[in-house]
Amino acid sequence: MDNNNTLDAYWMGYTANQHFKAHPRLLEKAKGMYYWTPEGRKILDATAGLWCVNAGHNREKIVTAIQQQAATLDFAPAFQMGHPKAFELAKKLVAITPENLNHVFFTNSGSESVDTALKIALAYHQLTGEGRRTRLIGRERAYHGVNFGGMSVGGIAVNRKLFPNLLAQVDHLPHTHDLARNQFSLGVPVYGVDKAERLEQILQLHDPSTVAAVIIEPIAGSTGVLIPPAGYLQRIREICDQYGVLLIFDEVITGFGRLGKPFAADCFNISPDIMVTAKGLTNGAVPMGAVFVSDKIYSAFRQDDPMAINFYHGYTYSAHPLACAAAIGTLETYQEENLLYKASELAEYWQHALHSLADLPYVIDIRNLGLVGAIELEPRKNEPNKRAFQVYLDMFEQGVLVRTTGDVIALSPPLIISKPEVDQIIITLRQVLKQLSS
Ligand code: PMP
């Protein structure tokens, strides 16, 4: 196969295109915990696709729901009109979201959900007579997708550097990762709650009555699986409450059972004002995102006059019938198999298995929570990220798909994973890490 000709037209995201096309890795088929390559190699999926295939691949109920929907209603306009599955899905979703989040706005991705949430927060303050609240606060090492709002509140220098015109009036909290104090800590780190106090300082610097919202990933996934220290998120919530600032949780990764409860908000016992989701919402089968808001926020947008829309926002494909069908099939699968709580059953085994790798060369930290894990490697001198990328390539050769971000190997298997499959991931990692060249 002449890869250059066959593969050249597709400009792939977050990929070194020419390098990849010279050495392509393709996936052709998937079922349950596994992918298959075009050559027929079976690959254990230790990343749930991209943190989204929580129920495992090609689940029958989801596939059938999509097929039936495509044959029944392919598309319906989403403005001043609806279709029954959208309302059915919304009702089913708010039954499992934290108690105060009873309304949902549909999007098509995590990035769209983030920007929708930021717009909702800013518009809410405008509509409730607090139009001075225009500032947004994100965090260093946060990933909130690739749209302009999400990039602005995000904290990844390489994503931002070609775009000087990001949103104005955005500040960043420090991230919570503290390797010196939390190395090899199990579950939630104990030290570092003082980092939340920085929010108070940022608010005072600007006058708290000018701040609209703080956006936080309960676990920063894409930048290395940074688990919040005990009490950190609670303190952020308290400070937001004290100053009338909205708290947005970006649960694109943590939502739908990843941590052993439906949402991270449940695990940490916190009610955000707005919750951003995507990925696990449809088990990755059809693109969809959803932004959940509190009753307080929804009622500020109350619209009884058909000509007085006060939130001029929405996507052609919001609540797309195929996505709604996929999400309903997904929720039913999650519920039938208790998958939203399943990670808590395996969390201890998972923790023990991951931390058994602590003795291997170059491993400088291991982190875990629910069915999320990270192994941080010492960066190679003058060649950061290369060591972890090598692990990714070697693992793929050995039949296990992992993900890397910087020098961190990130793991987030489908929630249907069994103990022998956990063992397979760990045994393969041990083998590959042992053979890493200096
Ligand atoms: N927020 C978070 C926390 C994410 O992890 C991601 C994707 N990894 C996004 C937003 C963006 O989602 P998408 O790629 O669907 O736009």
UniProtKB/TrEMBL annotation:
CDD domains: OAT_like. GO terms for biological process: biotin biosynthetic process. One of its GO terms (molecular function) is pyridoxal phosphate binding. Keywords: Aminotransferase, Pyridoxal phosphate, Transferase. It holds the Pfam family Aminotran_3. Its cofactor is pyridoxal 5'-phosphate. The keyword Transferase applies. InterPro entries: Aminotrans_3, Aminotrans_3_PPA_site, PyrdxlP-dep_Trfase, PyrdxlP-dep_Trfase_major, PyrdxlP-dep_Trfase_small. Belongs to the class-III pyridoxal-phosphate-dependent aminotransferase family. This is Aspartate aminotransferase family protein. It comes from Zooshikella ganghwensis.
